Amino acid sequence: MAIYALTGFSLVSLLSFGYLSWDWMKPSLVADVAMDPMEKSLPPAFARPPHIIFILTDDQGYHDVGYHGSDIQTPTLDRLAAEGVKLENYYIQPICTPSRSQLITGRYQIHTGLQHSIIRPRQPNCLPLDQVTLPQKLQEAGYSTHMVGKWHLGFYKKECLPTRRGFDTFLGSLTGNVDYYTYDNCDGPGVCGYDLHEGEDVAWDQSGKYSTFLYAQRVSKILASHSPKEPIFIYVAFQAVHTPLQSPKEYIYRYRSMGNVARRKYAAMVTCMDEAVKNITWALKKYGYYDNSVIVFSTDNGGQTFSGGSNWPLRGRKGTYWEGGVRGIGFVHSPLIKRKRRTSWALVHITDWYPTLVSLARGNLSNVPGLDGYNVWPAISEGKESPRTEILHNIDPLYNHAKYGSLEDGFGIWNTAVQASIRVGEWKLLTGDPGYSDWIPPQTLTNFPGSWWNLERLTDGLRKSVWLFNITADPYERYDLSDQRPDVVRTLLMRLVHYNRTAIPVRYPAENPRAHPDFNGGAWGPWASEDDAEDWEGGGELLKSRNKKKKCKICKLRSFFRKLNTRLMSNRI
């Protein structure tokens, strides 16, 4: 098959020209600095529980940070990472809800029933209420807990809201993506509503403010009103840099030389977010928190390549189980780290933050057995070996089965048509359909040829359902070893079988018409009552008898709220 030209370079020439000659074992473009001798004198335990700031960005690609060689300016992230510990063997999930659920619970998504897709706005679904969340554990340890930004863990009833799941305060959106200025979100034609909430109320008065700035300002306000003598946990889940691609014009102007329009807007959003992190860091110092603080920075999944993101030189993109979808940007910045200014290759997964942060807070983990995460603070702070040796990326029994997969291909122990992925030691196995399997260089050209994007997928993935890679030796997933090492394939398939035996049923109910914003004053928000919530959790539909009784009343309310919403929208415009 012919390889499409890319402004004079073919795929082969791109690989040989130096894009993939980057030394994977030393990827940082910021030189590591030797440890300060004074750091050796730090006590083994902190004098008091540290303030914890967890910053999560949305859809930021692996390549889209300065210290990974990006053309995007991120001076704040570069400096914080250089002065802290860069996590270069750090894994997240390929899409939004799974990463957030695993962060908040410390459990793989097969253990919360959220192993398929995301929580949709109209689904009667949310993070299982029997799960003890990270902020709840920190509250138990005496922390003040605050969330700013994107929730995306369900909201169909009030018990699902952030303020009912461990956060003292909340300002942000409940759904997956909203307009950065108007906070409107459409879940299909005509199914639109406002989504910015203050606590459990709709924050109509905040419309028009760019969310990245709004969230950073809220963090500063929280810090200004709290005492640094009391421990605080702030979870900052930026909407940035998820679509829609929106940014203040002055940031876009910085990248006016970029020919690719999507990349230009995306770059502006990343730099804007970087400045927001700068303002948060400045507030920590201004109000006296910084010296006893731990800042964790993480992305939630790989970048979306057709929306300006780049995971180069990794394979794949958001929504896939290739490294480009699950290897994240991550670092920890803190004066409390014993061995600063270095790169860590310790294996870390997003589930590890739960036990790590609760342990730092001197909280009690004895009453939350069965966590899938590990306390990785010694690995981060002291450079010790990570307690983690494997990661279950996921097992999704509902995802479209691969056409050429079978139980026979899985040695009679695993149906390779099922989408699944696992890493054990240096080996990574994928079965089923892992998603788009291309390598995409940074989209800096005006007309990046879309047909070239799928070249590898067309030539390599037509009749396969099993892939095996030595990720340590081959981080770009170029050399499939499944045929050469059937013994390793079988061993990892057995691990999938082991995990699958512990999985709970998938929670993915049908959408419910009662979720329509027209029934909620024009805004997205809880719609289920305590009486009928149980009827919806199973099949996602109201009982017919109840539906008939409420039908007439609902029609009248829908008409009223539609008119009211039109007036409100016209006033905001």
Automatic annotation (TrEMBL):
An example of a GO molecular function for this protein is: metal ion binding
UniProt keyword annotations, A-Z: Calcium, Glycoprotein, Hydrolase, Metal-binding
Q: Please list which residues make up the signal peptide.
A: none
Q: Which residues form a coiled coil?
A: none
Q: Which SUPFAM superfamilies match?
A: Alkaline phosphatase-like
Record Pfam families: Sulfatase (PF00884)
Q: Which residues form the Sulfatase N-terminal domain?
A: 50-361
Q: Which cofactors are named for this entry?
A: Ca(2+)
**Top-level taxon in the UniProt lineage:** Eukaryota
Instruction: Read off the Gene3D superfamilies from this record.
Output: 3.30.1120.10, Alkaline Phosphatase, subunit A (3.40.720.10)
Query: Its family?
Result: Belongs to the sulfatase family.
The name under which this protein is listed is ARSI Arylsulfatase
